[in-house]
Design a protein that fits this description.
With 141 residues, this protein is of the alpha+beta class. It has one domain: 2,3-Dihydroxybiphenyl 1,2-Dioxygenase, domain 1 (Roll), CATH 3.10.180.10. It is 21% helix and 34% strand. An eight-stranded mixed beta sheet has the order 2-3-4-1-5-8-7-6. A hairpin with a 5-residue loop joins strand 6 and strand 7. The longest helix is centred in the N-terminal third of the chain and has 12 residues.
Length: 141
């Protein structure tokens, strides 16, 4: 079912400052900043070759990311994302196995318009996990 690691998502209070810090300190270059209106986030990716770092900041005060920053003002790891052969099939199979797929199993859309799903942390060792269709070779940068 899980085919590989896609990205690790880090919430930051200031996206531009985070991008600059990664560039200046680590030589990492972020891609274009995009907005996901549905999720209420501004985001960019740093492509590491075998996986990505996703940086996110809230684009509106009622987004889940804004709530995360209220609890963690300096930011931090929010979730990690794995590729699956089919998000819909994986979400259905996991729900049938008693795993809580967030949103009542309704698939969401990422910033690229692709379908994704999230698994509740209680069902994955305390970590929020995102499922996306297997496209690890695709560059979202």
């Amino acid at each position: 079912m899980i085919t590989g690691l896609s990205h690790v998502a880090i919430v930051v209070p200031d996206l531009k400052a985070a991008v600059e810090k990664l560039r200046a300190t680590y030589g990492l270059i972020a891609g274009e900043i995009k907005v996901n209106e549905e999720q209420g986030v501004r985001m960019t990716y740093v492509d590491l070759g075998n996986a990505k770092i996703e940086l996110m900041e809230p684009s509106r005060p009622d987004s889940p990311i804004a709530k995360f920053l209220e609890r963690n003002p300096r930011g931090g790891i929010h979730h990690f994302c794995v590729g699956v052969d089919s998000v819909e099939q994986a979400a259905n199979d996991l729900a049938a196995a008693g795993v809580q797929v967030l949103g009542g199993g309704k698939l969401q859309l990422n910033v690229h318009g692709e379908r994704i799903a999230f698994v509740h942390p209680k069902d994955f060792l305390g970590a929020l996990i995102e499922l996306e269709d297997n496209k690890l070779e695709k560059n979202h940068g």
